Amino acid sequence: MEHSIAVDIAFLLLAVLAVVAGWRVFRTDSMVRASFFLLVSFIAVGAIMILLAAEYLGVAMFFMMAVEMMVMALFMVMFMMNPAGLNPMMMVHQHRLSIVAGGVAFVILAAMALFSSFPADPLPAGLDPVHSLGEEMLGDSMLIFESAGIVLLATMIGVVVLSSHRGRYGAAEEGSMPPGLEPGGDPAGQPEDDESGGGHAHHHHH
Amino acid sequence: MTLVTLLLLAAALIGIGLYGALSQQSFVMLMMGLELILNGVMLAAVAFWAYSGAGAPEGQLLTIIVMAVMAIEMAMGFALVVAVFRGKQADTTEALSELKQ
Amino acid sequence: MELLTLVIILSLALGAGLLIQWLPQRHQPIPPYSQRAPFLGGGTPDTHAWNRYHIRYYPMTLLLIAFEMEMMFMYPWAVVFVEKGMMAVMEMGMFLAILSVGIVYAWREGVFRWQ
Amino acid sequence: MAVSWLRQLAARSRVPVFPVWGWHDDALLARLALSSQVELVDSPRHASVLLVIGEIPAALRDGLRRLHDQLPAPFAAVWLRGAPIVALGAPVQIARDDQLIETLVRTHRELMLGQRESAPRLLPDEPPNPWKGLGDDGHGGEGMMGGNPYGRPMAMNMQNDLRDGLTLDSLTFRLGPFFPLLPAGLCAEVTLQGDVIQSWETRHAALPQRLDPIFHAARQHPVSIADLELARARHHLVQLYRALHLAGLEHVAHQAVSLSQRLTSSSRLDGLRRQLMRSGIFRLAAMDGVQLDGELASHLGGPAARAAGLEVDLRTNDASYQSLGFRPQYRTAGTTRARWEQWLGEIKQSLQLARQAERDNLHTANTGAVETPRGPWADERPADGSALLDEVLPGLEWDEAMTLIASLDLRAVADAPREASA
Amino acid sequence: MIESLASLLMVTVVLVLGPYVVAVLDRLVATPTGAMAGDVWLGPLSRAAWLLTQQANATEAPDWQAWRLSPALYLALAAVGLAVVPWSPTLIATDLVTSVVLWGSVEALATVVIFLQGWSANAVLPLIGAYRYVALGLSYILISMFVLIGVALPAESLQWTQVVTAQESLWNVIRQPLGLPLFLVVGLGLTFWGPLNLADSTDLAGGTSAEVSGPSRLAWELARAVMLVAFSAIAATAFLGGWLGPWLPGPVWVLLKTLAVLALLLWLGHRLPRVAPERCVTLMWVVLLPLSFVDLIWAGVLALWA
Fold this sequence. Notes:
The complex is a heteropentamer of chains A (about 210), B (about 100), C (about 120), D (about 425) and E (about 300).
Chain B: H1 3-23, H2 27-52, H3 57-88, H4 93-99
Chain C: H1 2-22, H2 33-36, H3 58-84, H4 86-108
Helix pairs in contact in C: 3-4
Chain D: H1 2-11, E1 15-21, H2 26-34, E2 38-40, E3 49-53, H3 61-69, E4 76-80, E5 92-94, H4 100-113, E6 171-175, E7 187-193, E8 196-204, H5 213-217, H6 225-247, H7 250-261, H8 270-278, H9 281-284, H10 294-300, H11 302-307, H12 319-323, H13 336-360, E9 370-371, E10 376-377, H14 388-392, H15 398-406
Parallel strand pairs in D: 1-2, 1-3, 3-4, 4-5
Antiparallel strand pairs in D: 6-7, 7-8, 9-10
Helix pairs in contact in D: 1-4, 2-7, 6-7, 6-13
């Protein structure tokens, strides 16, 4: 595959961006920032994919990861004490081991990249990546495509069961009874099944 | 931009991700580590597709599947965290291990 | 070339956005603390506003992630839709059916209501 | 050169004004809202002039000082009908109401052209709490949640028992006295859980409102029913203006307030009503959430009570009204929506009554008791209802709560009537 | 090369003039009687000048980088939107094979940027605005995708130029009658305009921009205006046949159609009340999303039948 020097420069910048942003994820106090650093890392990789002529995958990376990281940030905010990192902190365990493991993984993978030889078989000219992907999905890999749909449906249902407040199935129901706004108070703000909650007749709409 | 440089970048991302996944106590941060690893994997898949797969559509498909795995991992992970949180009021990985019993 | 143009446009806009903010302010001192207190109509907060916030629509966000993944399959599908004809229609039927089941189920469980 | 050119241009902009109402005055509000040279803003950050109207009670002056300091430079404070609070250099005071717009424009112009110094800050430049930095960038306090990073403690979970079974923090702050969406003077300590109000404690009641002199006159001697009803319609229209502004329907809000200024017995409400219905506001906004039950509503009286199904209206006892065939309108739901509909219905009814009464030149028969737009005034003036919020608001989402507050007239009636505006 | 430069110039001109046009049009739409006619032409400029004169506000411990970056990033996203608009068959800045999806990404990333704007101030009212907006942003994104896929079906491509070419016989606004209305809802959400202004709403005293003043506020408003223009241009491309039209050159047609969509958006913004945030999510998922399914099925059946 031929490409100009501009592509090389762009790749270099994007590669540095991807790695630095990826590193910053674990080195920032603000959890929200951490998720958006990860987003930056993904976007950089997506841009590299576009440079590699995988135009659909690269762009898909943008919108998929924008949404995923947004959700990630939301959950950060929900679950982390000090989500903005106003107090510096370091919530790590097995720190040394992890650094070593990360380093070793990099060295092994890098060595594999450097010392094994891969067949040079670039993209054929005139290939339309999006079209070929569509063909594949509706052709040979139909089964994968279909099962992915089913798995995602299962995920949807699983997610709803686990996280929904009003889930009908045991575990999720636990603790989902709104305990009221004051300790020991009546349940409050419950939309449907508690019309008289809180002593005065207010209820959420719907 | 060659296959080797791309793979080196992927390796770096995987390395950082592995560090994060192993070291972070918080479950949400741990997931970020996993995502970073998958980021590297996707990059490697696309790099192979572009440089030594002759544009076989399976390369792209693999990337999409990795992305799907990532989405499922995230959605289920968070749903699980919510469920655990309701009971345990904590989000560290230690709390998750209690769930197994 | 296209990408280069895109990068130029992107950096132009980004630069303009930053310059508009930076140029008029470069010699201004940071405002005093009395100005920096958050606006609450003359009231004061006890604490910082950043907190573990109750995002009451979170089940919806999880559903969205799974949903969006399906959408990712649909874009390439759109390109070959006409070519593949009936098969693509069946495919679409299946996808929309899955999504509809997902929505209906989630709706019944009250996912779209804020907790 | 470039700078002066920019400032010349800036001096021509509409004057962004953040109003603080010590004495509320519908006519002044209408004048400000209708002026094409003034823009009323909701946040002091968006204003260049702080307009203080009337005397601010001593208890609220701290709030005013804080607010004063929150305007970004260059800004000025303009005082109408009241003395500036102390420690101010070169305050702008307006003697007469009709100079209001003119003075606002001139002050803004002077500020922009650099002919007037930005007003000095009233409070010391120091963080609310002492803090000492820790950490790599010297930015935090101690421990994960301890200390006062940047001079404020971290938001913390004060109560274990929370709605969703998740441990989430609550935010406590004091809102008011001059939060634009609350009646002036109302201060409350609010605890938020996300965007849901967990608790609401009213700390300072809303400042009393001064009604149109005709409602005071009606207790002394018979007054023209036409004038009385027009004054009532005007009052409701201004209330509607606030609620519409909150709902984001600036266009209709503008219509409401302009109608209130040129209201005669031949005015029609139909155009406004049609626009409102067409906008679909009753379907899109959260208006059916909270029911104000009869007991709570009866404390407030007036349209709020009638919207909750209480058929109470002093006008029914008045022989002249009886001769007009007056029957009080009422709704049963007691929701925000019912109160909106009640307003619309009462404005329409008032216009109708005014038309009939004008024809026969009718005057009120009872003088002891008058039904003010705020509520019945027989032996006692309608009292403040701010405390009601403590009971109603907890559990509501912020938007819903603000919509609810805008649909209630909580202010007491002051003993003095409104001054005739010059 | 010449084409690239010309398209670059085109985008820059729209970037610069767009906000002014939005401001003027908004004033004209808001007061149809012409009550403030004198203010209409100079008003936007003098307001901008005032904002440049005003000091930028700070809060006690804001996330400085994110706070200053978010208006610039929002502007940059809007510019990317403009870059994928084809002004004529050849006059287009970025004619990516997947430019339709790129626009989808702009919509998704806008949510992140608007969230950051509210989050960074570290004040409660902007924070509520930010979280509310995310609920909206995560809801409209799916509708947008279905509508965009519907548009891509007859074109058999994810490229805006192809989408326009496919409309030569019939514009999509007629072929897919549900598409444009649904897409307009997305536009209102994307620019938090009018009924979907959950981010900067009145009940939060300005929401995400409650604590923003001076040049930063100007940048934010500029970015929002450019986003309105970019969205209108995309809507014109997707549904109104882009450069297609008799007598006039292509770019002029695109501009005219963009103005039409823009005026419609601004008008809607003034005529509709703000939707309650809690109701918004249900509305999007339970009403509008199924409608977008119908739109897609309709588009699919028609594409096969044609």
